[in-house]
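Subject: complex prediction, re-run

Hi both,

The earlier run crashed halfway through, so I resubmitted it with identical inputs.
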Amino acid sequence: MKFADIIALALRNLRQARLRTSLTVIGVVVGVAAIVTMVSFGLGLQNNLLRDALARIDLFTSITVMGPGTDALLALRDQSQDGAANDNGAGDSNGEKSDGAASPTPEPTPMPTRMLDDAAIAELQGLSGVRYVLPNFSFSSYVRFEGRTRRSFIGGAPQAIEYNPRFKKFLAGRHFTGASAREVVVTERFISWVRSKNKPNGNRRRRPGGPFQMAPTRPEEERAREANGILGKEIVFLIPREQNAPPSAVFGIPIIDASSSENGDFASEFGAQYEELVYRVVGVLKAEDGFDINNFMETDMFIPLDQAKEFRDANRDPMSRIGEFLAGDTGYQNAEVRVIDVAQVESIKEEIKKRGFRAWSLTNQVEEVKRVFLIVNSALALIGGISLLVASFGISNTMIMSIRERTREIGVMKAIGGSDGEIMRIFFVEASLIGLTGGALGVLGGWGIDRVANTLANRWILNQVGQVVRRIEFFAIPWYLSTGAILFALIISLIAAIYPAMRAAKVDPIKALRYE
Amino acid sequence: MAILEACNVTREYRMKAENVHALAEVSVAVERGDFVAILGTSGSGKSTLLNLFGGLDRPTSGEILFDGQSLAPLSSWEMSRYRLRRVGMIFQSFNLIPTMSARENVSLALAFAGLGKGERRRRSLELLDRVGLSKRADHLPSELSGGEQQRVSIARAIANEPQVLLADEPTGNLDSSRAAEVMGVLDEMRLRDGKTIVLVTHDRELADTFATRVIRLKDGRVVDGG
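This time it finished cleanly. Structure:
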C-alpha cells in the first residue's frame, strides 16, 4: 500500500472519531505549549543577557589588552630591587601572596611585564589575524561647563574612528576635525549631568544603574534636541599647574568624589593652581542600547588621542602618579585589539599574553553563561515534558479504544490482503498525525501564551517604573525550539503508539470476522 | 494439477483443557475451474477448511498447497500477499467497511495492491459494473440491500484478479431471490473468467444447483466427495 494511501486511511480513521481525536490532540497541545512556554522563557532570559553581545558581533572579536597596572609596577620594582625571589606572587593584583613565599598554585597567571606604549601597539598591530589596534586612554580631570565644575572621565579617541563601534552613532554633531583641534565629543552621560542642573531640586529620578542599566528612556528626538543644544558650547579643562608632584604628596592631593562633584566653590579653593584650556563641543555620541560591558565606568567625553596623552601626563590621578614614580611611563591604559576571525580570538589572546601583556576577551564568559542556561533550559523542558508524557498516555488510550472499535475492520483488511506491517503503519501514522497536529498547535499556543505574558509583563513594568522603557522580550522561540517541540511531540506519539499498533497487527482475522 | 489442495490437514483448537479437532486429517483437492461446494452442518469444520485455503489460518499438521506449492513456509507478509493476489474471500456477513462507499470498499483492496488513485478509481468502477452496481458506487453499505452488499464484496474479492474465490455461506443472510442473484454472479465468474470457486454452505439445494462437485464434511472429517 502506498504511503499516501496509509495517510489517507489514518486521516479517515481520525475524522471518524472527531471528538476523541480532538481531545487527544488537546492533550498534546497542552504538553507542547508547556514545553515551548517554559523553554522560550529560559531562552528569552538568556537572550536578554547576551543579546547585546550577540547583536554586536564585534564584542566577540575584541581583545582588551592591558599593560601593567600599578600593582604590577610595584612588583617590577620589587623584582629589580630584590632579585628574582618574588617572581610570581608578589605582584598579584589581589595581594594574596604579597609575602613573596613560593606559590602553591602550579601555574600562576603571569603578570604583565610589558609597557603598553606606541612600540607595543605597533607590535600588536603586526600580529597575524589582527585587523587593527585601538589604544585607549581615559583619565579623570576637572572640567567646567556653564559655571559648574565636575570631575569627569575623559577618553582619548583616535582620529580614525571607522572601526570603533563606539563612534558609529552620533546623536548630534560630528567627530573632531583633526588631532590638534581643540574639540571635544561628549556622551549622553555628560548630557544627563548637564540636564540635572536644570531640574528643580529633589525631582531627580534615580537612574537605574549597574550593568543592567536600561537604555535611555526618553524619546530620541528629545535627546537629540538637547544634544544639539550644547553643540558649540565651551568646556573648560582645568589642568594643574604643578606637575609631577612627588609621591609623598599623593595623600596631600584632595580626593574629591570622583564621579560627580556638585561642589560649586571648587574654583575659589583650587582655581589658582589650575590652568584653563578651552574646548568646544562638536559632537554628542548616542548611548548604546542596553548595558555596555566595555564601559562600566562610562566616559563623559572624548578628546583627540594625542592631546589626551599629553593631558594625562600633566594631570595624573594619584594612582598613575605612583605608577609613574615607580616605573616611569605607564603607556596606554589599555588597547582594543580587533581580530579578523572569531575563531582566532583565543589563540591571539594567548599570543598577546605570551608577549607580556594582560589580555581579556568575552568569549569565555559567553560560553560559561550559555552552559548555565543550557542546564536551566533543560530543566524547564523537563517540567514541560511531564505534561507531554501525560498526553502520551492519552494517545495510547485513544489508539487502544480505536483498535477495539475497529477490530472487525482490521480483520477485513487482513482478509483482503493487508499485511501486519501495513496495519501497524496505519496506526503509527494516526499517532503521528495526532502528534504533529498537537505539536504545531502547541507551538502556536505557546507562542500565544508568550505574547500575552510578554504584554502583561511589559505593562507591569510600565506601571512600576512609570515611564516608557524599551519593550523587553521575555520569551524567545527560535526555529529549533518550535521544530524541536513538534519533533518531540511526534516521537512521543510514535512511542505511545507502539503497543496499540502491535496489538492491531496481531488481531486474528478469523476471530475478528466471526459472524456475530 | 489441483489448484488448491489440503493434504492430511488437521486443525486443533485449544478450548480450556482439551483439544478440539476442527479438522482431522482432511485431504481435499480442488481442480482449476471447479465449482466445489463444501457441505456440512455448523461445527463440521467447513469454515475452518475455507480459512486454511484462504491463508487466514495455518493447519496444526498437514499441508495446504496452492498450485502445487505449500503455504507452510510462507512468512506472515508473504501470506498477506497470497491473500491479496491468489484468493478472494466472500463472507456471510459481507464484511464491508461500513464507513466506506461501495467504490471505496473495492478500492481498498486495490490500494493494498499498490495501485494509484486514478487507476483505482477506474478499476473499482469497472469491477462494480461487472456485478451490476455501477450506479450505486457512491452508496454506503447501509444504503444497499443485502444482495447488493454481497455483490460489492464479490467485486472486492475479484479486485486483484485471484484465480480462486472462497465463499463462506455467501447467501446465508439473503432471501432466496437475492441468493440466486449472488450465486448467479459467482457462477458467471467461473464460466466467463475461469475462476475456481469454493463455496461453503449448509444448503444442499444450493450446492446441488451450482456446484460441479460436492464435498461433505462431518465432525472435521470428509464423509463424501473427498
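The two ends of chain A are 29 Å apart (CA to CA).

- K.
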